[in-house]
Amino acid sequence: xxxxxxxxxIYDRSVALMxxxxxxxxxxxxxxxxxxxxxxxxxxxxxAGTAVGMDRMLAELEKLGANANTVQNRLxxxxxxLAQAGELLQRISDLTIQANNASLSSDDRKAVSSELxxxxxxxxxxxxxTDGNGRYLFGGASDGDAPFTLSNGVVTYNGDQIQRKVEVxxxxxxxxxQPGSEIFLRIRTGxxxxxxxxxxxxxxxxxxxxxxxxxxxSWDGSSYTVRFTAADSYxxxxxxxxxxxxxxxxxxxxxxxxxxxxxxxxxxxxxxxxSAGQAQSRxxxxxxxxxVQALDMDVSTEAGRTAQQNGLQASLRDVSRAAEAMIDxxxxxxxxxxTIDDAASLxxxxxxxxxxxxxQLRDVDYAEAIGQYxxxxxxxxxxxxxxxxxxxxxxxxxxx
Length: 400
Fold this sequence. Notes:
alpha+beta; CATH 1.20.1330.10; three-stranded antiparallel β-sheet; 8 helices; cilium
């Protein structure tokens, strides 16, 4: 069998070889100019797919960073608002102590009452703080409108009780600003667990100055009433009006019963009553209103002055508890801010790792690529030289 090698076949193979070398050189030029060794997906299908997945992860980390910035801004503004609210409550406490001074005149108390009304307006403004983007901090998920409104002297909450969870790093979530209902409304009275008050019908000069658990842990949440049978004696009755104990009264001494400890100062009259039971919830605005009402009481009689002192003492306890609630809310927000800082470190570490892996997949090795480029260039030049020499070859040249 004879195999014939034609001139056209030799030309075709030479041209194909030169085109192949030119294609490789063009590809290497693209790699060198772009700095990427994966010019098209066919260069490394597996690597290209892996790189796309890493790009998505980097985009997700960037999105989580934006989430973190947004919630960090809101929590920072919450911290500022609660700090100012705490200062207002401290001012209320100072004014209450000042107003409880028997030497204050009626005009002095009116001045205190006027300042308290102004503080209520300031507190309302803080409760309606925005985040700078038109959203209200303390509205929960319904943060498009002001969460608190004032109508006929009564403050109403229009938000909801939802506290958003925001992802700030893979698998890490933080809580957004707390709903205003948890900060400004649902504040426990008294010491947060137990509360008490003097009966409005009292005629003596006894003032309830302290009420708390006695530390024994025996109080089961039951309600009791300290009823004075004489100026120096009392009986303790439970919720069913059953006498559970009796005792002798000395002004300023603790009266203990059912796991509770009550201190009354002054001179109660026979028939005066002081109640004790579970603390209820009251909003901070109502606490200010009750304080103003106490200051506006008629103090022309001894009973009126005593009722005012009892009202001021109760308000002082409630204001103190409200201040503690603000501190608790600030502490919770601070914990979330700490989590955001930790999440930022995690995102940064993940970003560095992903970019390093992407660099290994995509970035061209210039030394290797330049060497390959020179090699392919030399091969192309050799192919072109051979083709030129081959073109000049002819049978007539051989027989001359």
